[in-house]
C-alpha cells in the first residue's frame, strides 16, 4: 500500500511536468492536439491523486499503523468519523489534500472551457499544473505521507482531542477549496496577460470559480470562528491570530475583485487594478498556506518549524515577481476604455469599496507580519495585539457596511439629485430611526456599535427596498401572486439579488460582531455546589458536579469527563439546566503512571451554551483536580508494583481505579472555576453567515441554457411607468 | 477647472490620504507593540512596560489556588533562568508543564504579572511518540 501511494505521487509529479510541457508547446506552435493533451494531463493528475488520497484514507480507516502518519495522528480508540478527518490534521496529509483539491478544480475549469478561451487556456493549464508540480514535489521529496514504520506498534498516538469537533471535518477542506479555487482566476489572469487577450472573456469564464472560492473560503472562516467559540474554552470567535488572518486576506481582496470586475465588464475600466487584484489574491492564498505550513510566525496553530519555508518563499517571490513583470509589460493593452464620470456614481462607490477592502487587507497584512517587520527594522521581535487591529478595522468596517448599502442604490455613471432622493429616502430613514431608537432604549456607551446598528439598518432598508421594487415591477409585468413574483424576480437576476442578500447577511453579521464585542459581560468565578453568581441579569447556580469515564467503541478508555450541572435563571423566568465539562484524554508519555497519564494529557472544554436570538449565555468549567492528586499518585504506585498483570487485567483495574476517582469527585466536590460570558446577539453572526451563504448559492447557481425572452416595448413602458410611481 | 487637472488633483489628494493613513499605521504599530522576549532576555525588564513573554512552562512549577495560577517560564530550548509569573484567570485547555506559551507580562517586584486573558498555549501538532503500547 505504501509503495502504491508513493508511486502515485511520483506519477503525479511526472504528469504535471509533462502537462506543462505539452500545454506550452501546443500554445507556442499552435498545435491543438498538444493543448488537448496538456488538458488531459490535468484530468489524469486528478485521477492519480484521488487514488493516493484514497490509499491514505484507507490506512486511517483501517488503523493500519504501518503508516507512520496513521500511527502519529490516529489511534484505534479514535471514533471512525474522526479517523476519517485525521489525515488533514497532519502536515503531509494537508498538503496532499491541497493538491488534490487543486487538481479537481483545475480539471473542472479546463473541462468547462475546453471549447472556449483557446488562446488563454493552455497557459492557464501550465500555471495550474505548475502549482500541482510544486506541491507534488514537496510530497515526493520533503514531506511524504507514505512513510512506513518497520515495526508497527499496536496502538497509535491519537488525534489531538481539540480537533475532535464536527466542524473540523469540513473546515480544512473548505479553506483548501477556497485557496485552490483562487488559483483558477490567478492562472487565467496570467494566461490573459501572456496572450494579451485582456477583455472580459476570461473574467466571465472564471467568475463561477472566483465566486466559489470566495464562498468556500468564507464558509471555512466562519466554521473556524464557530469552532473557536464552542471548543476552545475562551468564549471568543476571532483573535487576530496569524492563521486566521492568513485566510482573511485573500478573502478580502477576492471580495474587492468580485466587485471591481463588474466595472470592467460594464464600462471597460480598471483593467490594471483588476488583474493586480486577482494576482494578489492568488498570491495571498499561497501565502496563507505558507504561513500555516512554515511556522514562521507565533501562532496557536503552530505546526512547528518545518522544512517547507524556503520552497514556499521561492514560489511566492516567483509569483510576485512574475505578476509585476507581466502587468508592467502589458500596460499598453490594459488601458481603460472610459474615465470615471462622477464621484457620485456606482463606479465611484465600487472603487471606494475596493480601496476600503484593500486597506483592510493591508492592515491585517501589516499586523500579521509585524513581528518580522519589527525584527528587520529594530532588531527585536515585537507584535501587535487585538486592540491595535480593532482600532483600524472598526472604522474601515463601518465605511464598508455603509458602502454596501450605497452601492446597490446609486446610479451608474452619474447620480442625479432625483435619483438620490428616490433611492435613498427610505433606507436613510431606516438608519436614522434605528439610531434614535437605540439611543432612546438606552443603548449608549459605544459610538462604534451604535453607528454599526444604524448603518446595518440602512443596508437592510436598501436591500428591502430594491427587492420590493423588483417584485412590484414583476407583478405589474406578469400579473403574478407576490410569492411567485418574488421567486421569479430572483430567478431572473440571480447575480444581482444573490449579491443583495449577501449584503444584508453581512450587515446582520456585523450587528452581531458589534453588539457582542461592545456589550459583553464576562466573569471568572469560583463556586461551590449550591452557590449562585449573577452575570448581567442571569442568576447562575452550581447545582451539582458531574463525572464519568468514557470508553471508546473498542472497549479501551478514551477519556474522563469532570463537569458541572448549572441552573440558569434569567430575570424572573423559568430556570434552565446547562451542563459543561472538561474532558481529560490520556497522554502517551511512558514516564507517567497509568492513572496520572489521564490528567497530564490533553484536555478539552465542552461549553454549556444557552444560545438565543437576543443573547447567549456561555459557560465553561475548569475543575480543580488538586484534591484528587494524592489518590492519583497512590493509584500509580499500585500499578507500578503490579508487574504480573495481563493487559486485560490492567485494563480492567485501570477502569476500576478511574471510576473510583470519578465517584470520589462526585462525593466531595472541590470548588470549581467557571468562566461565564453573557454576550448579546452572537447568534446574529451565525445567522448572518447563513444569509450570506444563501445569497452566495443563489448568485452561483448556474443559469439555465434557455435564452431569456426579451421584454417587449409595451411591457418595458409599463414597468417604467410603475417604477416612477414607487 | 479642466478635467485632466481635476483628475490629477483628485489623485494627489487620494494618494496623500493613503500615505498619511499608512504613516499612522506604521507609527502606531511600533508604539503599541509589545516586545517578544524569552526569559533569558528579560533581565533588563523595566517596570510598567509590557513584554510578550514566550517560553516553556518549567516542569514542576505550576501551582494554582482558585483562579490564581503561579508558574515559571524558561527559554524555549528549556535552558535560561526561570521567570516567575502570576496569572489570574483560567488557563487554556492545552496548558501543561513543558508546553510552549505566549503571555503578555509586566514586571512587579521580582516576578511578573500576566495581563488578563493574554495567555496563549501553543497547540502541539504531534504528541510525543509512544515507544511501546500500554
Description of the structure:
The complex is a heterodimer of chains A (726) and B (134). Chain A is an alpha+beta fold and 726 residues long. Chain A has helices at 2-29, 32-61, 68-73, 80-85, 91-112, 120-142, 167-195, 201-231, 242-267, 271-294, 309-329, 346-378, 386-409, 417-440, 447-478, 482-492, 494-518, 596-600, 629-641, 647-667, 682-700, 713-725, and strands at 382-383, 521-527, 532-535, 538-551, 557-570, 576-584, 603-606, 608-610, 615-622, 672-680. In chain A, the strands form 2 sheets. In chain A, strands 3-4-5-6-7 form a 5-stranded antiparallel sheet. A 4-stranded antiparallel sheet of chain A has the order 2-10-9-8, with helices on one face. The longest helix of chain A has 33 residues, at 346-378. The radius of gyration of chain A is 29 Å and the shape is globular. The relative contact order of chain A is 0.07. In chain B, a hairpin with an 8-residue loop joins strand 4 and strand 5 (83-88). Chain B is elongated, with a radius of gyration of 23 Å. Chain B is of the alpha+beta class and 134 residues long. Chain B contains 1 helix and 8 strands, in the order αββββββββ. Helices cover 22% and strands 32% of the residues of chain B. The chains are: A alpha+beta (726), B alpha+beta (134). Chains A and B meet through helix 3, helix 12, strand 1, helix 13 and strand 7 of A and helix 1, strand 1, strand 6 and strand 8 of B. Strand 1 (382-383) of chain A pairs antiparallel with strand 1 (34-37) of chain B, so a sheet runs across the interface.
Fraction in helix of chain A: 55-70%
Q: Enumerate the spans of chain A where pLDDT stays under 50 for 5 or more consecutive residues.
A: none
First-to-last CA distance of chain B: 85 Å
Strand content of chain A: 5-15%
Sequence of strands across the biggest β-sheet of chain B: 2-4-5-7-6
Number of helices of chain A: 22
- Tell me about the largest β-sheet of chain A: 5 strands, antiparallel
The total count of helices of chain B amounts to: 1
How would you classify the helix and strand content of chain B by structural class? Answer: alpha+beta
Q: Which oligomerization state do the chains in this entry correspond to?
A: heterodimer
